[in-house]
Amino acid sequence: MKKLLIITLLTLTSLHAKEYKVVFDLTTSSATSVENRVLHNINGLQHYYAKTGDTLKAAVVISGGAYTFFENDSSIKDIAVDISKVAKVEVCSVGMKKREIKKSDMLPFVIPAFNKTEALIRYQNEGYAYLPVK
Questions:
Q1: Which range of residues forms the domain containing residue 78?
Q2: pTM listed for this prediction
Q3: pLDDT tier at 69, thresholds 50, 70, 90
Protein backbone atom coordinates (compact mmCIF):
# COMPACT_ATOMS: atom_id res chain seq x y z
CA MET A 1 0.00 0.00 0.00
CA LYS A 2 2.84 2.40 0.87
CA LYS A 3 4.51 1.71 -2.47
CA LEU A 4 1.31 2.51 -4.33
CA LEU A 5 0.90 5.76 -2.40
CA ILE A 6 4.50 6.80 -3.09
CA ILE A 7 4.18 5.99 -6.80
CA THR A 8 0.93 7.94 -7.00
CA LEU A 9 2.46 10.97 -5.27
CA LEU A 10 5.54 10.90 -7.52
CA THR A 11 3.35 10.62 -10.60
CA LEU A 12 1.16 13.54 -9.53
CA THR A 13 4.22 15.65 -8.72
CA SER A 14 5.77 14.96 -12.11
CA LEU A 15 2.53 15.85 -13.87
CA HIS A 16 2.66 19.34 -12.37
CA ALA A 17 6.38 19.89 -12.92
CA LYS A 18 7.29 22.36 -15.63
CA GLU A 19 10.32 22.34 -17.86
CA TYR A 20 11.71 25.79 -18.58
CA LYS A 21 14.03 26.26 -21.56
CA VAL A 22 16.60 28.92 -22.37
CA VAL A 23 19.12 29.40 -25.17
CA PHE A 24 22.02 31.80 -24.66
CA ASP A 25 23.34 33.54 -27.78
CA LEU A 26 26.93 33.84 -26.60
CA THR A 27 29.14 36.29 -28.55
CA THR A 28 31.16 38.02 -25.85
CA SER A 29 34.90 37.68 -25.42
CA SER A 30 34.65 38.64 -21.73
CA ALA A 31 35.38 35.74 -19.38
CA THR A 32 33.59 37.58 -16.57
CA SER A 33 30.43 37.88 -18.69
CA VAL A 34 30.56 34.22 -19.69
CA GLU A 35 30.99 33.09 -16.11
CA ASN A 36 28.44 35.45 -14.54
CA ARG A 37 25.82 35.83 -17.25
CA VAL A 38 25.82 32.23 -18.48
CA LEU A 39 27.33 29.73 -16.05
CA HIS A 40 26.19 31.29 -12.76
CA ASN A 41 22.83 32.21 -14.29
CA ILE A 42 22.14 28.63 -15.42
CA ASN A 43 23.25 27.18 -12.08
CA GLY A 44 21.13 29.65 -10.13
CA LEU A 45 18.05 29.07 -12.27
CA GLN A 46 18.42 25.29 -12.08
CA HIS A 47 18.52 25.47 -8.27
CA TYR A 48 15.58 27.90 -8.19
CA TYR A 49 13.37 25.71 -10.39
CA ALA A 50 14.40 22.52 -8.59
CA LYS A 51 12.99 23.93 -5.35
CA THR A 52 9.54 23.99 -6.96
CA GLY A 53 9.93 20.60 -8.64
CA ASP A 54 10.53 22.17 -12.04
CA THR A 55 13.56 21.91 -14.32
CA LEU A 56 15.62 24.15 -16.56
CA LYS A 57 16.92 22.92 -19.89
CA ALA A 58 19.70 25.17 -21.21
CA ALA A 59 21.59 25.54 -24.47
CA VAL A 60 24.42 27.85 -25.51
CA VAL A 61 25.09 28.86 -29.10
CA ILE A 62 28.56 30.34 -29.49
CA SER A 63 29.91 32.72 -32.11
CA GLY A 64 32.00 35.88 -32.30
CA GLY A 65 34.49 36.39 -29.50
CA ALA A 66 33.17 33.42 -27.53
CA TYR A 67 34.98 30.86 -29.70
CA THR A 68 38.15 31.29 -27.66
CA PHE A 69 36.58 29.82 -24.49
CA PHE A 70 35.66 26.59 -26.27
CA GLU A 71 38.93 25.81 -28.05
CA ASN A 72 41.23 23.00 -26.85
CA ASP A 73 44.12 25.38 -26.22
CA SER A 74 42.09 27.93 -24.26
CA SER A 75 43.70 28.99 -20.99
CA ILE A 76 40.23 29.46 -19.47
CA LYS A 77 38.49 26.41 -20.89
CA ASP A 78 37.44 25.38 -17.37
CA ILE A 79 34.51 27.82 -17.68
CA ALA A 80 33.47 26.12 -20.94
CA VAL A 81 33.77 22.68 -19.37
CA ASP A 82 31.57 23.81 -16.46
CA ILE A 83 29.00 25.18 -18.93
CA SER A 84 28.95 21.84 -20.77
CA LYS A 85 27.88 20.14 -17.53
CA VAL A 86 24.67 22.22 -17.39
CA ALA A 87 23.93 23.07 -21.03
CA LYS A 88 24.13 21.76 -24.56
CA VAL A 89 26.79 23.74 -26.45
CA GLU A 90 26.64 24.43 -30.18
CA VAL A 91 28.94 26.51 -32.36
CA CYS A 92 28.40 28.38 -35.63
CA SER A 93 30.14 26.37 -38.38
CA VAL A 94 30.24 29.39 -40.70
CA GLY A 95 32.22 31.36 -38.13
CA MET A 96 34.51 28.40 -37.56
CA LYS A 97 35.26 28.29 -41.25
CA LYS A 98 35.92 32.04 -41.42
CA ARG A 99 38.31 31.77 -38.48
CA GLU A 100 39.88 28.58 -39.86
CA ILE A 101 38.91 26.64 -36.74
CA LYS A 102 38.51 22.89 -37.22
CA LYS A 103 36.16 20.70 -35.20
CA SER A 104 39.26 19.04 -33.74
CA ASP A 105 40.35 22.47 -32.41
CA MET A 106 37.19 22.68 -30.29
CA LEU A 107 36.51 20.97 -26.98
CA PRO A 108 34.88 17.56 -27.57
CA PHE A 109 31.43 18.46 -26.25
CA VAL A 110 30.97 21.36 -28.72
CA ILE A 111 28.50 20.49 -31.48
CA PRO A 112 28.85 22.29 -34.82
CA ALA A 113 25.56 23.76 -36.05
CA PHE A 114 24.89 24.67 -39.68
CA ASN A 115 25.17 28.28 -38.55
CA LYS A 116 24.23 30.43 -35.59
CA THR A 117 20.93 31.55 -37.06
CA GLU A 118 19.81 27.98 -37.80
CA ALA A 119 20.59 26.89 -34.25
CA LEU A 120 18.77 29.84 -32.67
CA ILE A 121 15.72 29.36 -34.90
CA ARG A 122 15.62 25.66 -34.01
CA TYR A 123 15.83 26.34 -30.28
CA GLN A 124 13.22 29.09 -30.37
CA ASN A 125 10.87 26.83 -32.36
CA GLU A 126 11.34 24.22 -29.61
CA GLY A 127 10.15 26.76 -27.02
CA TYR A 128 13.49 28.06 -25.69
CA ALA A 129 13.59 31.65 -24.43
CA TYR A 130 16.28 33.68 -26.20
CA LEU A 131 18.93 35.50 -24.12
CA PRO A 132 21.78 37.34 -25.85
CA VAL A 133 25.13 37.63 -24.07
CA LYS A 134 27.26 40.24 -25.86
A1: 17-133
A2: 0.87
A3: very high
